[in-house]
Design goal:
With 393 residues, the protein is α/β, with parallel strands linked by helices. It folds into 2 domains: 3-27 and 39-146, Enolase-like, domain 1 (2-Layer Sandwich), CATH 3.30.390; 151-373, TIM Barrel (Alpha-Beta Barrel). It has 13 helices and 12 strands. The strands form 2 sheets. Strands 4, 5, 6, 7, 8, 9, 10, 11 and 12 form a 9-stranded mixed β-sheet that branches. The structure holds magnesium ion. Magnesium ion is lined by residues 219, 245-246, 272, 322.
């Protein structure tokens, strides 16, 4: 069966969630990503007017939804971010090449998109576009085969996916049944020694409340440099941080090597801002980090992440997808692949008191129960969407 149409739209996923009766992230007791009023540090924190507010400088483009329709009218749906440029890349550049190709030929489609993007770079914006199309194609493939995507990937590999939560509402996360929590770091080099002391105070107080039986991780969202990362890790060593994540600007490959050299005892993770398999190969080859964290919605879709899992497995590294439990794409990948050991639930998790089932954006998405997740076994990614739903977005 051939691809009849590839079409992308700009959609506000937060509004979708509200329209389908779900909770908005801002409902409840304030944003879960602020610690004593401070938002996470960022690469722009060195400029006073942007310090403490990612939204002051982040791109305002909404989400990308891509629909791939087969000749018989069956459709698959993929999502990504940065709709402004990404929708244009899909509709203007990829769609004309893919329409008329075989629906089942995901390898060829991935290869064609990577190659046709080379004149402007296949990493970054183009890999967001590749992701949306690739996810839609895998959804379509599952629907045509009438099998869940995790089976097409050779799974299930595990009975259920153990999950951790990212944010500061750790007491609520533990109540929800999560056994591990990742804290965003509000301090960076611009905060100097005082910031290091406050970071230690923050981690000490959380560790004090959770006790020793909960894994704690720290997400630094590209905000640090080599020296600050080393000083931070040394200050936090008594609190047994499970891993430190995303501590440098993503292109600083030699910086990652230097942190690795200076912190041989600290588990390190990164990759949510790395795109397409090649970067992960270079990182795996040099063992720059212990855990690779591609985002299936950004790094090139299922086809890219499967390659990343294989190379991680060969190198003896773990893969834990960025936001992998936030959507059915990451859920199916994590269920199928041996290299993936845990699932991250981020995006605010849910405000205290609001059940996780109320935060679903895409109908049919499986929900974490008691800290574990089992994906939907419905065809494709199990999304419960019909033509009327598509009309409504
Ligand atoms: Mg992160």
């Amino acid at each position: 069966m051939k691809i009849k149409e590839v079409k992308a739209f700009e959609v506000d996923v937060g509004q979708l969630r509200a329209r389908h009766g779900g909770a908005r992230r801002d409902r409840g007791q304030g944003p879960s990503y602020a610690w004593e009023g401070l938002e996470p540090a960022s690469p722009m924190a060195r400029y006073q007017e942007y310090k403490g507010s990612r939204s002051a400088w982040s791109a305002t483009w909404k989400s990308t939804v891509c629909v791939v329709t087969a000749e018989d009218g069956t459709f698959g749906l993929g999502i990504s971010g940065l709709a402004g440029p990404v929708v244009r890349i899909i509709n203007d550049h990829f769609a004309p090449h893919l329409e008329g190709e075989e629906c089942m030929a995901t390898e060829k489609a991935f290869d064609m998109m990577a190659r046709t993007a080379t004149p402007f770079g296949s990493h970054g914006l183009a890999s967001f576009a590749i992701s949306a199309v690739d996810l839609a194609l895998w959804d379509l493939k599952g629907k045509i085969e009438e099998r869940p995507v995790y089976e097409l990937l050779g799974g299930p590999q595990k009975e259920r996916i153990p999950c951790y939560a990212t944010g500061f509402d750790y007491e609520w996360y533990l109540e929800l049944g999560f056994g591990a929590v990742k804290l965003p770091l509000p301090y960076g080099p611009v905060d100097g020694a005082e910031g290091l002391a406050k970071a230690e105070e923050m981690v000490a107080s959380v560790r004090d409340r959770t006790g020793p039986g909960v894994d704690l991780m720290l997400d630094c969202w590209m905000a640090l440099d080599v020296d600050y990362t080393v000083r931070l890790a040394e200050a936090l060593r008594p609190y047994r941080i499970r891993w430190i994540e995303d501590f440098l600007m993503p292109e600083e490959m030699d910086g990652f090597a230097e942190v690795r050299r200076r912190l041989p005892w600290q588990t390190l993770a990164t990759g949510e801002h790395w795109y397409m398999p090649q970067t992960f190969w270079h990182a795996a080859k040099r063992r720059l980090v212990d855990i690779l964290q591609p985002d299936p919605l950004w790094a090139g879709g299922i086809s890219a992440c499967v390659r990343i899992c294989y190379l991680a497995e060969a190198a003896g590294l773990e893969v834990i997808l960025h936001g992998g439990m936030n959507n059915p794409y990451g859920q199916h990948l994590s269920f199928a692949m041996p290299a993936i050991t845990w699932g991250e639930r981020s995006g605010g998790v849910s405000p205290p008191g609001v059940p996780l089932s109320e935060t679903v954006s895409l109908p049919g998405t499986a929900v974490i129960e008691d800290g574990f997740l089992v994906p939907s076994d419905a065809p494709g990614f199990g999304l419960e969407l019909d033509a009327a739903w598509l009309e409504s977005i």
